[in-house]
Amino acid sequence: MASVSELYDVTWEEMRDKLRKWREENYRNSEQIVDVGEELINEHASKLGDDIWIIYEQVMIAALDCSRDDLAWSCLQELKRQFPDSHRVKRLAGMRLEALERYDDANKLYDSILQDDPTNTAARKRKISILRAQGKSSEAIRELNEYLEQCVCVTYLFRYVLFLSSALSSYAKAAFCLEELMMTNPHNHLYCEQYAEVKYTQGGLENLELARKYFAQALKLNNRNMRALFGLYMSASHIAGSPKVSAKVKKDNVKYAAWAASQINRAYQLAGRGKKENKCSMKAVEEMLESMQITMS
Amino acid sequence: MPLTTQAYCKMLLHAAKYPHCAVNGILVAEKQKEKKKEGHTSTILCVDCVPLFHGTLALAPMLEVALTLIDTWCKENKYVIAGYYQANERIKEVRPNQVAEKVAARISENFSEAAMIILDSSRFTMGCFTPILSIYDHLDNKWKCRDPSTDSFEDWTEAQKITSALLESRSYENLIDFDNHLDDLRNDWTNPEINKSVLHLC
């Protein structure tokens, strides 16, 4: 089998930089990380300097994702040798136990970390992940709520509760999380857009209007967010089509929907430039927009 | 309602692309006319699927957009939205959840023989030697489970061979779902390239 460097004609430095990019942007492309990382470790370890330790960590986690216990084990051994008493490495050992579904053993490891260092967020997070893996989502949410009461401003925890809440269709909780996230991250268009989606899903005229406002806000923060654009279109159309709104509200929403429709068409036209196959998407969008116009008027 | 190789293949590729997420999608069907001695009879064949989302499956607006667009596309191609598939996030969960039942129920409003398919990731192997799905039919307002047989496929041997081949060649890296399309409109959720690969291997 050809090596990565041969297949893609890349140097070891490019491979190392790619790993860094994936690490910094939190990609979960585990198969690729294993391919690139394994080769880097096997062929170029001596050139990597101190970077090698964080690469071992990254590759180990990716290896767990790909059921490559052999690779995960050897990375873990290297890290244990270099950092014998590290909590960070202990957590990795715990993750390996989780991958092997040895949850009790993993929990014991995390508990020992927390005994030493009760503020260790990584260990708390892993314990909650175990609950989730075991299908105990309600318990996981309970633990998270307890944890949130003790900590201030932990974005990732809110995201976690959000994720779980959405999975359990607990929209009110999801909305609450997103409100907190929007407060601490006012420029993040994704939170705005997700909040709008949750409100829309909850349904009812008031929620639709809120949804429309937040889709619009998301677009202000990032005018290329297609979900926000579609969402604006859908919510405005539904409001305009509702028998419960005043003539003025209807007129305003027809305007918003029309604006959104033109932007959507424009986006598809830009995307479809020079590509014959995309014409089908464009046509489908045009028809969708037309058919909704009929229900609005 | 039997599945073609293309439909089965793309469902599995979708699940393979996002092993750590729940995934879902729509099944589309076409009426096939068969000549028999007594005249024409038509059977319905599930010819294709459109992968929808990965990760959070339960939010309404994008689902509505997707269903409307797919509906339009179906009408152009004389297809009909005929079913819904889902693979749960946890491999041990092999039953449909609220989201699955809601969407599938909505589909069955427009197509009475709609099927709901839940993929069983715990039996997912590269060789694909057994079909890894449970099929649910809507009977008496409930979803009743039925195990797949070779009748559930247009050609099981072909489906098994081609799906396995595409998994080996990591074709799932190129599979486009509706989420990918919303991230970049140039991504084509009809997956023409993968369709070509399937045809090529037939």
TrEMBL record, chain A:
It is found in: Endoplasmic reticulum membrane. Keywords: Endoplasmic reticulum, Membrane, Repeat, TPR repeat. Coiled coil: none annotated. The keyword Translocase does not apply. GO terms for cellular component: EMC complex. Pfam families: TPR_EMC2 (PF22890). Residues 90-199 form the EMC2 TPR-like domain. It is a peripheral membrane protein. InterPro entries: EMC2-like, TPR-like_helical_dom_sf, TPR_EMC2. The keyword Lipid biosynthesis does not apply. Part of the endoplasmic reticulum membrane protein complex (EMC) that enables the energy-independent insertion into endoplasmic reticulum membranes of newly synthesized membrane proteins. Belongs to the EMC2 family. Component of the ER membrane protein complex (EMC). This is ER membrane protein complex subunit 2.
From TrEMBL, chain B:
Component of the ER membrane protein complex (EMC). EMC8 and EMC9 are mutually exclusive subunits of the EMC complex. This is MPN domain-containing protein. Residues 1-159 form the MPN domain. It holds the Pfam family UPF0172. One of its GO terms (cellular component) is EMC complex. PROSITE patterns: MPN. Belongs to the EMC8/EMC9 family. It comes from Pygocentrus nattereri.
